[in-house]
């Protein structure tokens, strides 16, 4: 099983700041890495697929990068609605999710 | 528009069974596999596996074999998740999800169904 480790577990920032979230895979997943956003009481929402492709309707302030084992989700300037939990997921071998990063308001 | 609409919350006793439904609309049901994802209270997401919506062949992720059953009724564009011999640790929100517009990535999700197992 491919294990995804997300860090930090919690990120405390203010609106307008830049957020950098990381996801590391236990073995290479090529570019088969996806990012989701989840708000309380809601289903996850697809943000980034193929490591760096924004899904339809996702603002340009969200960007993804990386390949192999190390990946990053960057939010260039935080909006109030961006505070949520973010999960990475790989689909290189079966599918597994990381444990999530909670992005909270400082 | 594409929608996945799940059945309502369930409260069941340990040892019972529960069947969660996921009704799809807005696309050709048999063209896109249906996946299931579990989220225990306050926890992260776990992929449970998927069912081929064309053949009905299910594939279960490790940890979800034996008591979990995926099925379909293509006549009503609905996928089902049945959990048998319920345990307290099955208490979770269960989501159906599929890749419709984005190849192989979950771009549509049901709203989730809370299954509570308690005596």
Approximate helicity band of chain B: under 10%
Ranges of chain B where pLDDT stays below 50 over 5 or more residues in a row are: none
What's the total helix number of chain A?
0
Look at the structure and give the mean pLDDT of chain A.
97
Number of strands of chain A: 11
Describe the main β-sheet of chain B briefly: 7 strands, mixed
Order of helices and strands of chain B: EEEEEEEEEEE
Please provide a brief summary of the model.
The complex is a heterodimer of chains A (106) and B (119). With 106 residues, chain A is an all-beta fold. Chain A has strands at 4-7, 10-13, 19-25, 33-38, 45-49, 53-54, 62-67, 70-75, 85-90, 96-97, 101-105.
Detailed description of the structure:
The complex is a heterodimer of chains A (106) and B (119). Chain A is mainly β and 106 residues long. Chain A contains no helices and eleven strands. In chain A, the strands form two sheets. In chain A, strands 2, 4, 5, 6, 9, 10 and 11 form a seven-stranded mixed sheet that branches. In chain A, a hairpin with a 3-residue loop joins strand 5 and strand 6. Chain A starts with a strand and ends with a strand. The mean pLDDT of chain A is 97. With 119 residues, chain B is mostly beta strands. In chain B, strands 2, 4, 5, 6, 9, 10 and 11 form a seven-stranded mixed sheet that branches. A four-stranded antiparallel sheet of chain B has the order 1-3-8-7, with no helix packed on it. In chain B, strand 4 and strand 5 form a beta hairpin. The radius of gyration of chain B is 14 Å and the shape is globular. The relative contact order of chain B is 0.31. The model of chain B has no long low-confidence stretch (mean pLDDT 96).
